[in-house]
Amino acid sequence: MDDALNIARAVSPPVYEYEFSICTLVTRKDEYCEMLESFLNKGFDKNTCEYLYIDNSTGSTFDAYTGLNHFLQHAKGKYIILCHQDILVHDQDRTYLADRIAEIESRDKDWAILANAGGINFKWIATNLTQGNGNRIKEKRLPLQTKTIDENFVIVKSSANLALSHDLSGFHMYGPDLCLMADILGFKSYVIDFNITHKSDGNPDASFDRARKAFMKKYDHALRGRFMATTITRYYISGNWFTAMVYNFMPVKFFVRQYYKLFLHKKRYVLKEKQ
Questions:
Q1: What are residue 117's DSSP bridge partners?
Q2: Domains in the chain with CATH codes
Q3: Hey, is 89 helix, strand or coil?
Q4: Does residue 6 sit in helix, strand or coil?
């Protein structure tokens, strides 16, 4: 037995090389350098923080979904900051941010995402940042649990092992996508008190409208009710409790099985050869 164990490696809890990984898609290097300086000046030193970027300055090497997934996979920090190049850290510093993270950690260890703005519910939006024109927007009640987050400044807990959708693309709606992924995995998202300057107020252009429609289409399908079968049981899942109750009656499941038997044969699911 000892000889067999010699070829295996026991897995231990992760040890992170950095406290923060600060990750950015870059289209304007001068603006990115200004952002870097603001982080360094506020205590995010190069010994305990790593700075990662994707160079999109000469073309779109990666969109937000693929690029940020690379960051999430390769960052070595305990906390991964996904941020825009047009932000500046100003009156609050690294120590202040660490205190805000510790505050959340002490009250809810199931958090995965922190941000400075987001949609709390269908009515309320929470925003805590300084606009490019100097206008400071201060949410009084923080931290707040949120359904979505704005993408300008996002902190992801590395141990949550989050990823963005493979079947979405572009540069919009990836904040809500990340929040939904976290929610499905059993984590929560919060808007916290860490005020930075975000020079841009957003650009909801035609590409945003396309991304919004693609996002809705994807999740209409992903979150659909469905019949499922394991090797030992069959059941129906749905976000609608009444539908789930009706469809899980044994007679209903029997007739659904007959439908699959007659119209959806197993050969329908065989992987096809490429033409």
A1: 127
A2: 18-221 (3.90.550.10), 226-269 (no CATH)
A3: strand
A4: coil
C-alpha distances (whole Å) from 244 to each of 19, 227, 234, 247, 254 are 44, 10, 13, 5, 15
Helices 174-184 and 206-222 meet at what angle, rounded to 10?
A: 20
pLDDT digits (tens, 9 = 90+) for 166-222: 999 999 999 999 999 999 999 999 999 999 999 987 777 899 999 999 999 999 999
Residue 271 DSSP symbol: P
Cβ-contact 77, 19 below 8 angstroms: yes
Rounded to two decimals, what is the model's pTM? 0.90
Greatest extent of the chain over all pairs of C-alpha atoms, in Å: 68
For 124-157, the pLDDT digits (tens) are: 999 999 999 999 999 999 999 999 999 999 999 9
Alpha helix (H) residue ranges in the chain: 2-5, 29-41, 64-74, 94-107, 174-184, 206-222, 241-247, 250-263
